[in-house]
């Protein structure tokens, strides 16, 4: 090393690279002639000598590797956008809707920071009394008593108000996001306004619902009464699923839900296509319908949830396009479970078999609604089946017919599961493919947490104004090497003095640092008066020693679990 002379007229990086190249050339790694012909700003080494993921070599520009190598360290843009939207929803404290409500209580039971998830005020909630609009009929299926509608896709939006009326036995409801003060978790609080609980025993069923943990059911956490809103309200706390939308919002609302919630674009975001297709019906009108593969996914997931609930001796009682939430890739979760058990509590007249039969019929209505793109109740079965058959297979038609058929002793959820046959395998394949896809995305981010820790350590050390009464602590001793290394990683310039902004270089350097590679690099000071040749292993030791000097006295909250004291920060 000593025989290499420094030329002060050359930029430091160039010198560093020149020296480094000579070192590599001496070690037989490089063809120096070729190197001098087109000098790169630094030499990349393959990362195959450490324990972390070795990515397959794919030449940049080939069909299978159309992104620059650094992109392989990050998840895809679509997934990132989706997760960022969720993160934004989690942290947002600003209501998305103008509210004409009185100020919300600052604290409610163990919850605080209430944010409405839907607009408030007349006409926006479930205010009109009227109870359930769906009544039993003596016929072969359950028509709607109003006699209107035929599932032909024309009157879906008009019927939205009718649909609202039946909800929560005529009581208005409001939905808020809130934070649990005890564990910081987010919940959705559904407030049933103006409901006076007459018997405490009405809460008896809540415990059974709390025990149900199912991937297709929004978990109920607790229920309580409150006067914090200035009335008698009943509140149900559920798990919060950021950016969740109802099936209604997703498939029926045009640009906005009647309640004001906006809808994301319908086009394909994931492998199996979007949520709905648009095409021209035979009469030339534009119709929306959910893709058959997505319909099967919905049907199978809802049936799965219903099986769990019925097996526990409960009934959903709330199955409807406005009470099924969709998150991520066609994942559905049944919402509002347990509410009717409290609202319509009557221990003398509870007939769980009848309620479970109602669940199946409500399921049938939901299938017709989605397939025919109409929330209008099915009053003309022939017409509805005709619309359904236009877009869906006979199997889907059979499922819809089975569900909407009148109650019978053999009509149980297990029978529906048998009808699915190999469709279950298709759903399983889709789930496993999606899991593979997500694992692949996760792999690309695997190293990033580790590198952030490393950069945090360097950030704690570099440029620290003073420490332990030492005014130039960060520029002296071992810390000087760390600051030179920081320049080597982040502040290199090329031979024309242009900044080298190459994240692949940063990642390669940090990986070598993290593993303590024996590879040696030349560090040159900014005034080019000092030149040090050190190995990554030595730099790593400097960082560890400087960081433990900072962290050990009392930890000072650099880490949550004192892992910095254990040296694994
Ligand atoms: N558990 C939850 N997690 C996240 N968001 C939720 C949750 N429950 C409801 N939401 C959001 O709150 C909004 C309002 O929910 P709600 O069940 O009242 O739907 P709605 O379509 O407005 O029905 P309704 O006509 O009965 O008011 C939904 O559109 C959904 O975006």
Automatic annotation (TrEMBL):
Where in or outside the cell is it found? Answer: Cytoplasm
PROSITE patterns, alphabetized: PROTEIN_KINASE_DOM (PS50011)
Where does it sit, as one GO cellular component term?
PAN complex
Entry binding sites for ATP: 190, 239-246, 322-323
**Could you tell me which residues belong to the region Knob domain?**
461-569
- MF terms in GO: ATP binding; poly(A) binding; protein kinase activity
Report the SUPFAM superfamilies cross-referenced here. Answer: Protein kinase-like (PK-like)
Entry coiled-coil feature ranges = 422-460
Notes concerning its domains: The pseudokinase domain, the coiled-coil (CC), and C-terminal knob domain (CK) form a structural unit (PKC) that forms an extensive high-affinity interaction surface for PAN2.
Briefly state the protein's biological role: Regulatory subunit of the poly(A)-nuclease (PAN) deadenylation complex, one of two cytoplasmic mRNA deadenylases involved in mRNA turnover. PAN specifically shortens poly(A) tails of RNA and the activity is stimulated by poly(A)-binding protein PAB1. PAN deadenylation is followed by rapid degradation of the shortened mRNA tails by the CCR4-NOT complex. Deadenylated mRNAs are then degraded by two alternative mechanisms, namely exosome-mediated 3'-5' exonucleolytic degradation, or deadenlyation-dependent mRNA decaping and subsequent 5'-3' exonucleolytic degradation by XRN1.
Subunit structure of this chain's protein: Homodimer. Forms a heterotrimer with a catalytic subunit PAN2 to form the poly(A)-nuclease (PAN) deadenylation complex. Interacts (via PAM-2 motif) with poly(A)-binding protein PAB1 (via PABC domain), conferring substrate specificity of the enzyme complex.
Per the record, the similarity remark reads: Belongs to the protein kinase superfamily. PAN3 family.
Protein name, please? PAN2-PAN3 deadenylation complex subunit PAN3
Q: Which organism is it from?
A: Hydnum rufescens UP504
> Which classification does the entry list for the species?
Eukaryota, Fungi, Dikarya, Basidiomycota, Agaricomycotina
